Amino acid sequence: MRRCLIVIALLAISVLVKAQQDPQFSQNMYNHMTVNPGFAGERGNWAISGIYRNQWQKMDGAPETYAFNIDAPLRLGRVDGGIGLNIMSDRLGMQSHLHFMVNYAYKKIFNFGILSAGIKIGVVNSKIAGDFHIPVGPGFTPADQDPALGAANVDLSKIMFDAGVGVFLSGKNYYAGASVSHLTKPKMTIGEIGEFFWNRHMYFTAGYTIALSPKMDIQPSVFYKTDFVISQYSVNSNFIYDKKYWAGVSYRYEEALTFMGGIELKNGVLIGYSYDWNVSDVGRYTGDSHEVTLSYCFGMHIGKREKIYKSVRFL
Questions:
Q1: How many Cβ atoms are within 10 Å of 279's Cβ, its own excluded?
Q2: 139: in domain
Q3: Window from 47-56, 184-193, 200-209, 219-228 with minimum mean pLDDT
Q4: Does residue 312 belong to any structural domain of this protein?
Q5: Nearest to 109 by CA among 36, 166, 169
Q6: What DSSP letter does each residue of 22-58 carry, written as one string?
Q7: Does any domain span residue 308?
Q8: Which pLDDT does position 198 carry in this prediction?
Q9: Domain that holds residue 244
Q10: What is the pTM of this model?
Q11: Rounded mean pLDDT of the chain?
């Protein structure tokens, strides 16, 4: 019970700690655009994707995230590139954050693959809900007595500039990427003594597709995320059948075992689902997590571009 109270307290008053964490996604191998601007235009077609994540089902005020991405290849003269847009809504306890980012990636085509360097700029609108009901009990400070919130039932909001960079390398059977978000370390002051900001986050990812038979592939991948205070990493393995059905498992170190699956339809639509079984010490109190991904690719190019092999199942 004591651990449960500690977790709830962290959710309710986490606004007072200094550094904020980017949302966690389990199907990261299919959602590169969310964290890496170098991925913009990588699929060779227009691509639209939506992600919904419901984390820690047993807890009120637990993280809930919506993300929307759109990107396309772009050729200006002899310069290959890509453009993209990210919109993400993230809620946690009394906090809510809306991110709006515009992406551009410069691409260079080599015999071994495509090397991209990207940048994203935009804003994040952070809000604190003054009417959020903090749990009652020992160890909790009511909102109307918390000097860091200034006054009870008062909503706080601030729009802040944000930016990030990333590189992405991809070939027919592999990919690798690295990116950094929150270069400007957006900061919001609350009342007289409270504040929060986003630490810079660094991401590394890599994956490879191995043909087991004419109709069966296996795709191992790794994902690493750090804000230079807390680090997370996961190892993943997906089996792909007939280039359109996939199922796999992922392990996020000391946090979750994830089961996932999906289908790529003939019209360019990919649907994916993942279930996180929380294996951490507080898992019995927080509950498990669910995530749904939906994406659609369609051919329509801005400028002419050399035809490159891409598949929604791989990227």
A1: 14
A2: yes
A3: 184-193
A4: no
A5: 169
A6: PPP-S-GGG-GGGT-GGGTTTTSSEEEEEEEEE--TT
A7: no
A8: 87
A9: 2-298
A10: 0.85
A11: 84
Unique residue bearing structure tokens 């598949």: 311
DSSP 8-state code for residue 16: G
> pLDDT for 136-188, tens place per residue?
555 555 555 555 555 545 678 899 999 999 999 999 999 999 999 999 999 88
Q: What does 244-291 look like in DSSP terms, one character per residue?
A: TEEEEEEEETTTEEEEEEEEE-TTSEEEEEEEEEE-STTHHHH--EEE
- CB contact burial 20-49 (16+ within 10 A = b; e otherwise): bbbbbbbbbbbbbbbbbbbbbbbbbbbbbb
Structurally, how many domains does the chain consist of? Answer: 1
- CA–CA gap between residue 288 and residue 207 (Å, rounded): 26
Q: Are 168 and 105 in contact (CB under 8 A)?
A: yes
> Are 280 and 289 spatial neighbours (Cβ–Cβ below 8 Å)?
no
Residue 18 vs residues 15, 187, 195, 290: alpha-carbon distances, Å: 8, 9, 6, 28
